[in-house]
Amino acid sequence: GATTPLEGTYTQRVAKTGQTLISRDLAEDTEYFLGQKWVRLGFRSNILVPLISKGRTIGALSLRSRKVGAFGPAEQTILERLAHQIAPAVENARLYQQLQAHTKEMAVVDEVARIITSTLDIDQVCQEFTQEMRKLVDFERASISVVNQGTDTYTIQYVFGKPRPGHPIGSVMPLAGNMTGELVETGQTIVRPDIAEAQRYVDDQDHLDLGLRSCIALPPISKGRVIGSLILRSRQPGAYGARQRAILERLARQIAPAIENARLYKAASIEKERATTTLAQFKAVLSGVDTGI
């Protein structure tokens, strides 16, 4: 189930040409970056046969051997016949997986829609939303932060997973030097395949110390304004590709109004409570004055 970039691989060559590719000795093959990896694992030769369905290359059948020159014309003929037979089945299985993934994604979208209309409790919104995200995208840590309007700060609203040391939920942080700050400035998703290879932000080392290597940061936008950040992190380098980005951007757009409404409701509730307290104190003062008279 692992996803590997196609660029510079044997599979890319086969997909591009639609022709079988035989490497007699991988130790002498410097054209493809994975060749030396297989040599280190003890393999010396390989053969890749295109899987073609409806005139289109949909993948490759790959075999490797610890013996130099293990694959010749006879093996090629047999494998090309087998590839021709199994390609339609592979394509059908791929289409079925896509359908299943789409169905699962739509179920999550529907559940997020329910969350949006079910509560104005911002903590509950964040918690239930994170639970739904995990059904579609893997992560070890997630954080949802809300920008404090009129200041250059944001508040950590919710954290799933191990928190960053010294930065509990409710911490108020400066926008400068953080991904949240860049999200507010650009309104664009940030994908970082490996933090260890390019440290850019003040909190990068803290996350590396927690074993978190890759991340994706998304800007929830409500009424044309970035209202905070949604950041997912993984221990696996390169965990977030085009598929994960598309799913998360859709979910971030969907949840943003709910987070904003819940934030406004919470602020209004705090203001109401403050006004109630002030009124009670005022009445107490008046009562004291009346007693004195």
> Pairing-aware structural class of the strands and helices?
alpha+beta
Low-confidence stretches: none
**Total DSSP helices:** 7
Task: Report the span from N to C terminus.
Answer: 83 Å
From the spread of the alpha carbons, the general shape counts as: elongated
The count of β-strands is 11
With strands numbered from the N-terminus, the spatial order across the biggest sheet is 6-5-4-11-8-7
- Portion in strands: 15-25%
Q: Roughly how many Å is the radius of gyration?
A: 27 Å
Overall mean pLDDT stands at 84
Q: Major sheet: size, sense and barrel closure?
A: 6 strands, antiparallel
SSE layout:
Blueprint: H1 10-17, E1 21-23, H2 35-40, E2 45-53, E3 56-65, H3 73-118, H4 122-133, E4 141-148, E5 153-160, E6 172-174, H5 179-186, E7 190-192, H6 204-209, E8 214-218, E9 221-222, E10 225-226, E11 228-234, H7 242-292
Detailed description of the structure:
The protein is α+β, with helices and mostly antiparallel strands. Helices cover about 45% and strands about 20% of the residues. The protein is built from 7 helices and 11 strands. The protein has a 6-stranded antiparallel beta sheet with strand order 6-5-4-11-8-7, with helices on both faces. β4 and β5 form a beta hairpin. The N and C termini lie far apart (about 85 Å). The relative contact order is 0.09.
